[in-house]
């Protein structure tokens, strides 16, 4: 019998690009993704290099010029200690952009591992862990974080650990459900028939196939991590003074908005808004590209 | 075209071209398709997956997916130009003159509404009273042979079996007394016996109704049984059309010729013949086709075929889109017609011996006996075919053998004379590599993240214990043995077609020189032309490696081609076990008889079927006595309900579990044959 | 079960993690004997299991302990605050549930058209905006600049029903934004799935009018998953309350927890959080029941 398919092109589907390249192409075509990317890149740039082009020292007090409305000298006005709001807004992303991504990373690693184990082994281990995670999720992240931070004391690493661990059940749940459906596929049975170890099956066979949902969940979570860090800072349990952090600035100035000093909070609020929306647009783009 | 001629026909497609918009490009799926269905006629549209069959149906009712566009052409339904209808006129057309029956009846019914309202709402469209609508709905359910329509009206779809759901689907389609009835793979996915019932029903309703029928199916035999005329679709083009009789018995297009040759028919067996195949692939949707769409795969093609699109030649009442239609049947075979085998039927020790194997599941507090007291032997180099409807325990049995699920304590399994532990973990390394499996769906069986090299290499590493240069050279051998090339090694599964993927899966199963390979419906997800190549490959590998197969399939012709022994399972029990040809030729168990009778065949004319009543009973609460007595057409009396029949030996090596004595079975079944002859 | 685990976590978080509570309350300069005495009077020198049992069994009986700061029983504080929070949550829910579902339906019926992109992306973006950010912006716009709405949610004594609602609209808006995106997204994807389903195709090809197809066949299946989402959103809602109530100076359970956290008043903190857990569990339970009542596949198992 002659070689079937030997002389024919072996790619009956029209796609010649690899899956990764295809996702990248699809991302580059997505307007919302690119918009989000520009916004996020802007704030990352400001966090890294912002201090070199701020007109004033963001931490320098100038009591004489306190609470000045926006003007040519102080574009965004000054706060109650006379600090230049524009300069503070520019560098205000520094702390949140280290804390939130690290927390997300922690959540992804912990959540993925938990999800893989619970999804793969099922049975008693899964039941117990799932119950614990469920109980964990019954309480809003902000409140869990509040309790833990009050108990452990405030520091950046506490915030990272607390938010990272609070988010991990959510990621674990996503990973677990993906693993549960992967497990039913025959390649897992084929691996068992080769007597592969459970670790090999989990990390070499299953993990690569659940990367897309993990990626989506991670970008979405990053948005919420920024949300959570900002909220904690606003409540005084996150980033601590004298950082020019946006949430912290709003927290120390919002008492005065009834007095009309709107510029002390509005620009920080808009900055946070733009950052989370930017991250969210990126997440939306990633999700769209991976679900195609 | 003039008005009167249009009015006469139930459906006319004029030069229809449809494209799907993918990644901002139009990909053509239907190309210049013209066909006519006359009033009262049943027209079959056949073709392999991806040829655009369903797109035809959806175009007619104007329900293409969001990205589908009719680029050229016109559709006339009962003289009305479907493309020119506005929203309300289109709705009225759907309400009054055209109906459709769908492939997946479970999904086609609304899961949260009872059957009653789903059916009556169609009658209510005619502004009649609720009571009248309900009465008509009940009448319609009776018409599709539902014995207890009032009760069924109260059910939700998920409470009905697949066959019942499809009857409801048919009742809904007939509710508006359509002039045009479109059936889109109406029996695909149903068990053979259920399929036969549904086809019978459609056949009988045809005589009662005036509707014209467009019957879409990949199954040539089903179409040949149901239709007056047939059109063969290839790459979105009509390549041949004519009366069913003519097209299937005297095809005039090489594609039709090749397609018919791919099917294992008339008792062909692996030790006599290799099946013919169609080399190459269907052009993908949107491909530019200059000449004949089939030219790349046609052994008759010459330069003209590649460059010049053949017209639809009118051959007197039938059409063929081939430059050389008169010599289409001289299409050379792609495989040798005859093969020489040294059938060394020496008395051998069985490679696998199973005795008293059971598997019980706990299901909501009930014991579910999925496999019940199965005993059999498998000889080296032979194939044991497992047949039976869904729920018969075929797949569970295979997984017990492999140790993927542990069997109940009590039964014994022996591999090459040594005991085989129920659990995979307790088996020796040699035993693990001696038994491997080829799964039904290669998309599920191959890890989509890994390259073919990784998939095969890993199997060689873990099963054959190879590494380094030894692994690499063996890998190349393995790739060649399943007729892939080394170029295939670097790609991922999704870049391969279904048939090529299945070859990779087969190669993986053979990596550790297995003694037994379980083939669990290995070709049922594939088109017939690909199926033929895979069956040939399995047969060749068996001859070369003298491996044994346990071959599971619902397709009896396929089982017959590859099997030496056949076991017929029903509710986890073996009802019949014997040499393949004996089981097929009979006398056989009444259930086997019904199964064989249910399969529509291309080469047989109308025959009286042995009918099965009712549904497969639940395994949680199997019938007393003989488990088959609730559906058995040859039940002899109370003994069947009370006493489980023993497996009696009909002939050496052929056993049947039935109360009817062998000679009586033979007499009854001969009589049946005579009716048909 | 969930609540049991939750209570353990809250207990551990509130009483074990902080280490020396007496020290935490009295500060680092306090005399060691004073710290020990305080710990003893609070019962914190007993074995953990005893403490837990004591705490949880009293909680069940309605005794939530004594506040460290107010030196008064916790329960009245919690119950009052919960009542106030319910009012605020209700105002937010009454606004967001119909509008969110409607938004999702409109988006789904116009998939990939501009209006869909606006609702989906806008809703999604609103979801990740922290409540204090949107709250500040709303206060500036509606309170400070336009003077339409009061900027603090403290209504005058004996305020009538509508006056109370009037005061609660501004605080409810940030909550509305956060929830709107979730609910609209679920409704949208449920709708799209239902619209693309085979049974919708059947209904359309039966020749039913479009209105009937949507009302009878699509909506019910489409909105089932949304019910569950709305219930789980109560959790996020309460998380938002902490911020919103603080921002608008409203005496709810959120601000109670916040104040307790500031003052390290663990009995109030624990009681508040456990109460939230109970509310959440009740909400999910109600959703589960509702879901199974509306879904025949769960209500009536397969019958063969």
**Uncertain regions spanning at least 5 consecutive residues of chain A:** 1-16
CATH homologous superfamily assignment of the domain at 344-566 in chain B: P-loop containing nucleotide triphosphate hydrolases
Number of helices of chain A: 12
According to CATH, the fold-level topology of chain A is MetI-like fold
Strand segment count of chain A: 0
Helix content of chain A: 55-70%
Biggest protein-protein contact in the assembly = A-C, 49 and 52 residues
Largest sheet of chain A: none
CATH architecture of the domain at 344-566 in chain B: 3-Layer(aba) Sandwich
* Oligomer kind: heterotrimer
Estimated structural class of chain A: mainly alpha
| String of helices and strands of chain A | HHHHHHHHHHHH
**Shape-level CATH architecture of chain A:** Orthogonal Bundle
Folded structure, characterized:
- The complex is a heterotrimer of chains A (292), B (677) and C (304).
- Chain A is mainly alpha-helical and 292 residues long.
- Chain A has a single domain (30-61, 74-291), classed as MetI-like (MetI-like fold, Orthogonal Bundle).
- Chain A is built from twelve helices and no strands.
- Chain A has helices at residues 19-28, 31-49, 85-91, 96-121, 123-137, 141-152, 156-183, 186-193, 198-206, 211-234, 246-253, 263-291.
- In chain A, helix 1 (19-28) packs across helix 12 (263-291) and helix 4 packs antiparallel against helix 5 (123-137).
- The longest helix of chain A has 29 residues, at 263-291.
- Chain B has 677 residues and is of the alpha/beta class.
- Helix content of chain B is 34%, strand content 22%.
- Chain C is mostly helical.
- Chain C has helices spanning 2-16, 21-26, 32-41, 48-60, 75-109, 114-128, 131-145, 161-195, 198-205, 210-247, 253-262, 266-294, 296-299.
- In chain C, helix 1 packs antiparallel against helix 12 and helix 8 packs across helix 10 (210-247).
- Classes of the chains: A mainly alpha (292), B alpha/beta (677), C mainly alpha (304).
- At the A-C interface, helix 5, helix 6, helix 10 and helix 12 of A face helix 1, helix 6, helix 7, helix 10 and helix 11 of C.
């Amino acid at each position: 019998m002659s070689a079937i398919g030997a002389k024919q092109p072996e790619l009956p589907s029209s796609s010649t690009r690899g899956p990764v390249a295809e996702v990248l192409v699809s991302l580059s075509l997505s307007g919302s993704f690119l918009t989000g990317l520009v916004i996020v890149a802007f704030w990352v740039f400001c966090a890294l290099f912002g201090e070199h082009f701020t007109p004033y020292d963001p931490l320098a007090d100038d009591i004489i010029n306190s609470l000045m409305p926006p003007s040519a000298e102080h574009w965004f006005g000054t706060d109650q200690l006379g600090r230049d709001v524009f300069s503070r807004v520019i560098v205000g992303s520094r702390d949140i952009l280290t804390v939130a991504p690290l927390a997300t990373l922690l959540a992804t690693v912990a959540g993925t591992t938990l999800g893989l184990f619970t999804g793969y082994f099922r049975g008693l281990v899964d039941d117990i862990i799932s119950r614990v995670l469920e109980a964990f999720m019954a309480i809003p992240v902000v409140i869990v974080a509040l309790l833990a931070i009050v108990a452990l004391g405030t520091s950046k690493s506490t915030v990272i650990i607390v938010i990272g661990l609070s988010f991990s059940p959510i990621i674990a749940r996503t990973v677990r459900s993906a693993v549960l459906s992967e497990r039913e596929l025959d390649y897992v049975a084929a691996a068992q028939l080769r007597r592969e170890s459970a670790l090999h099956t989990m990390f070499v066979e299953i993990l690569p196939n659940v990367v897309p949902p993990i990626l989506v969940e991670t970008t979405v979570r990053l948005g919420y991590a920024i949300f959570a860090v900002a909220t904690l800072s606003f409540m005084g349990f996150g980033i601590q003074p004298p950082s020019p952090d946006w949430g912290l600035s709003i927290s120390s100035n919002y008492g005065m908005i009834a007095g009309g000093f709107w510029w002390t909070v509005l620009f920080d609020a808009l900055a946070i808004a733009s950052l989370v929306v930017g991250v969210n647009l990126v997440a939306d783009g990633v999700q769209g590209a991976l679900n195609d | 075209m003039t008005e009167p001629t249009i009015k006469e026909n139930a459906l006319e497609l004029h030069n229809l071209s449809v494209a799907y918009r993918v990644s901002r490009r139009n990909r053509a799926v239907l190309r210049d398709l013209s066909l006519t269905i006359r009033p009262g006629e049943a027209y079959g549209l056949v073709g392999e997956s991806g040829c655009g069959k369903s797109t035809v149906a959806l175009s007619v009712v104007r329900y293409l997916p969001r990205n589908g566009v009719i680029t050229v052409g016109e559709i006339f339904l009962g003289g009305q130009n479907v493309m020119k209808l506005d929203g309300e006129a289109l709705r009225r057309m759907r309400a009054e003159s055209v109906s459709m029956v769908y492939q997946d009846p479970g999904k086609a019914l609304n899961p949260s509404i009872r059957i009653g309202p789903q059916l009556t709402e169609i009658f209510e469209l005619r502004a009649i009273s609720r009571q009248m609508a309900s009465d008509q709905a009940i009448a319609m359910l009776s018409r599709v042979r539902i014995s207890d329509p009032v009760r069924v009206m109260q059910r939700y779809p998920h409470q009905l079996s697949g066959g019942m759901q499809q009857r409801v689907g048919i009742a809904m389609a007939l509710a508006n007394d359509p002039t045009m009835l479109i059936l889109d793979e109406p029996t695909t996915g149903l068990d053979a016996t259920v399929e036969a019932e549904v086809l019978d029903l459609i056949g009988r309703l045809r005589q009662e109704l005036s509707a014209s029928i467009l019957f879409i199916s990949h199954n040539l035999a089903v179409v040949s049984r149901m239709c007056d005329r047939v059109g063969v679709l290839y790459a979105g083009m009509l390549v041949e059309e004519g009366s069913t009789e003519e097209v299937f018995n005297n095809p005039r297009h090489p594609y039709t010729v090749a397609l018919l040759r791919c099917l294992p028919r008339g008792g062909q067996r692996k030790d006599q013949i290799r099946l013919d195949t169609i080399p190459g692939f269907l052009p993908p949707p949107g491909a530019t086709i200059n000449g004949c769409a089939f030219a790349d795969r046609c052994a008759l093609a010459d330069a003209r075929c590649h460059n010049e699109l053949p017209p639809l030649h009118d051959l007197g009442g039938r059409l063929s889109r081939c430059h050389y239609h008169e010599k289409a049947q001289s299409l050379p075979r792609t495989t040798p017609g005859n093969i020489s085998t040294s059938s060394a039927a020496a008395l051998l020790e069985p490679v696998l011996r199973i005795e008293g194997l059971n598997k019980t599941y706990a299901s909501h507090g009930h014991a579910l006996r999925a496999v019940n007291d199965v005993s059999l032997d498998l000889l080296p180099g032979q194939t044991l075919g497992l047949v039976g409807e869904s729920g018969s325990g075929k797949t569970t049995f295979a997984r017990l053998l492999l140790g993927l699920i542990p069997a109940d304590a009590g039964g014994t399994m022996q591999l090459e004379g040594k005991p085989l532990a129920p659990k995979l973990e307790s088996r020796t390394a040699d035993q693990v590599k001696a038994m491997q499996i080829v799964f039904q769906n290669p998309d599920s069986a191959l890890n989509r993240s890994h390259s073919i090299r990784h998939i095969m290499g890993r199997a060689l590493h873990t099963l054959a214990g190879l590494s380094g240069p030894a692994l690499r050279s063996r890998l190349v051998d393995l790739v060649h043995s399943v007729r892939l090339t080394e170029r295939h090694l670097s790609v991922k599964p999704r870049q391969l077609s279904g048939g090529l993927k299945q070859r990779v899966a087969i190669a993986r199963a053979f990596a550790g020189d297995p003694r037994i390979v379980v083939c669990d419906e290995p070709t049922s997800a594939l088109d017939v032309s690909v199926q033929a190549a895979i069956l040939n490959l399995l047969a060749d590998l068996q001859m070369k490696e003298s491996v044994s197969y346990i071959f599971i399939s619902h397709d009896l012709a396929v089982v017959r081609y590859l099997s030496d022994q056949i076991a017929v399972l029903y509710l986890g029990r073996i009802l019949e076990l014997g040499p393949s040809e004996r089981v097929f030729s009979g006398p056989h168990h009444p259930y086997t008889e019904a199964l064989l009778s249910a399969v529509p065949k291309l080469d047989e004319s109308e025959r009286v079927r042995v009918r099965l009543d009712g549904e497969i009973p639940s395994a949680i609460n199997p019938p007393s006595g003989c488990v088959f007595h609730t559906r058995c057409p040859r039940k002899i009396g109370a003994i069947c309900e009370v006493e489980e029949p023993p497996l009696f030996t009909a002939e050496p090596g052929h056993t049947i579990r039935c109360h009817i004595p062998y000679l009586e079975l033979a007499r009854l079944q001969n009589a049946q044959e005579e009716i048909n002859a | 079960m969930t609540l049991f685990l939750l209570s353990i976590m809250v207990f551990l978080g509130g009483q074990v993690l902080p280490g020396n509570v007496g020290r935490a309350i009295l500060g680092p300069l306090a005399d060691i004997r004073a710290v020990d005495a305080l710990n003893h009077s609070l019962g914190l020198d007993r074995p953990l299991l005893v403490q837990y049992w004591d705490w949880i069994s009293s909680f069940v009986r309605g005794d939530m302990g004594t506040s460290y700061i107010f030196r008064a029983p916790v329960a009245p504080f919690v119950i009052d605050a919960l009542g106030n929070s319910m009012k605020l949550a209700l105002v937010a829910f009454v606004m967001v549930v119909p509008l969110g579902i409607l938004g999702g339906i409109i988006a789904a019926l116009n998939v990939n058209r501009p209006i869909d992109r606006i609702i989906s992306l806008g809703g999604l973006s609103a979801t990740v905006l922290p409540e204090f950010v949107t709250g500040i912006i709303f206060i500036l716009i509606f309170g400070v600049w336009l003077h339409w709405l009061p900027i603090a949610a403290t209504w005058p004594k004996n305020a009538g029903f509508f006056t109370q609602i009037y005061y609660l609209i501004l605080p409810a808006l940030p909550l509305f934004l956060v929830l709107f995106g979730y609910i609209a997204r679920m409704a949208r994807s449920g709708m799209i799935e239902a619209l693309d389903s085979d049974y919708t195709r059947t209904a359309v090809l039966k020749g039913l009018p479009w209105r009937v197809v949507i009302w009878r066949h699509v909506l019910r299946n489409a909105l089932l998953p949304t019910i569950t989402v709305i219930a789980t959103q109560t959790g996020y809602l309460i998380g938002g309350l902490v911020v919103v109530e603080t921002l608008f100076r409203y005496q709810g359970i959120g601000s109670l927890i916040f104040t307790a956290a500031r003052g390290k008043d663990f009995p109030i903190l624990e009681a508040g959080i456990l109460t939230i857990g109970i509310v959440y569990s009740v909400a999910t339970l109600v959703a589960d029941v509702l879901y199974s009542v509306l879904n025949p596949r769960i209500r009536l198992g397969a019958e063969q």
